[in-house]
Design a protein that fits this description.
The chain is of the alpha/beta class and 197 residues long. The chain has one domain: Rossmann fold (3-Layer(aba) Sandwich), CATH 3.40.50. It has eight helices and nine strands. It has a seven-stranded mixed beta sheet with strand order 3-2-1-6-7-9-8, sandwiched between helices. Strand 8 and strand 9 form a beta hairpin. Helix 7 packs parallel to helix 8. The two termini are 32 Å apart.
Length: 197
């Protein structure tokens, strides 16, 4: 028996059409931890059908690749930023944030100033979000807290949780506004409660 890998985008597109949600979604995708914009991208399929996108990654080399990939698409913003729930100076080596040391770029710039997603969205005047994907190697809870505190409620959320306790933490944090509708390990899919799923 051959089992094919189902990717997050395929699962999401299938269910969006199954539940007749496509025309109810805001056509903006926020991809936090966008990587190079192509490999395992949750946003690329939506960008290719004309959605606006804000692609954020902490690594300048990834943002350079994103920018090159989306040249000629003014509706795609590629932003280099290290996100957290507050703006602060961070030394990754001293903070033991080893998730951030997986790249030479971070070792070179171990001291960085983090920014909030809410401040980036204000700067780019992004008010309505159809889908947000959050995949930043263990720091997802901080981004979710910033979103909730600033009333940023995308219609659909894809959130990575590398450990079961993280997934439970996210579910608890989102319980008032979202319902968990599925997942493909290590990602969970949430839909805002005002959408019929």
């Amino acid at each position: 028996m051959i089992v094919e890998r189902v990717f997050e985008t395929e699962w999401l597109l299938y269910h969006i059409h199954k539940h007749k949600l496509y025309n109810k979604l805001h056509r903006t995708f926020v991809d936090v931890g966008a990587g190079d914009g192509r490999h395992c991208s949750n946003s690329l399929a939506f960008i290719e059908i004309g959605w606006e996108a804000v692609l954020i990654d902490g690594l300048q080399m990834n943002i350079n690749k994103c920018s090159k990939l989306h040249i000629g698409r003014p509706f795609v913003k590629c932003i280099q930023a290290v996100l957290s729930d507050k703006e602060e100076q961070v030394n990754f080596e001293l903070d033991n944030r080893f998730w951030a040391l997986s790249s030479v770029d971070y070792v070179k710039q171990a001291n960085v100033t983090t920014v909030t997603l809410s401040s980036i969205l204000r700067r780019y005047k992004v008010n309505k979000i159809g889908i947000a994907s959050i995949d930043i190697e263990g720091q997802e809870t901080k981004i979710l807290e910033d979103m909730i505190n600033n009333n940023i409620l995308p219609q659909i959320l894809i959130v990575e949780a590398n450990e079961p306790w993280m997934a439970q933490e996210h579910k608890e944090l989102l319980r008032d506004s979202y319902k968990l509708v599925g997942g493909i390990q290590p990602n969970s899919f949430y839909v805002r409660k005002d959408l019929k799923w």
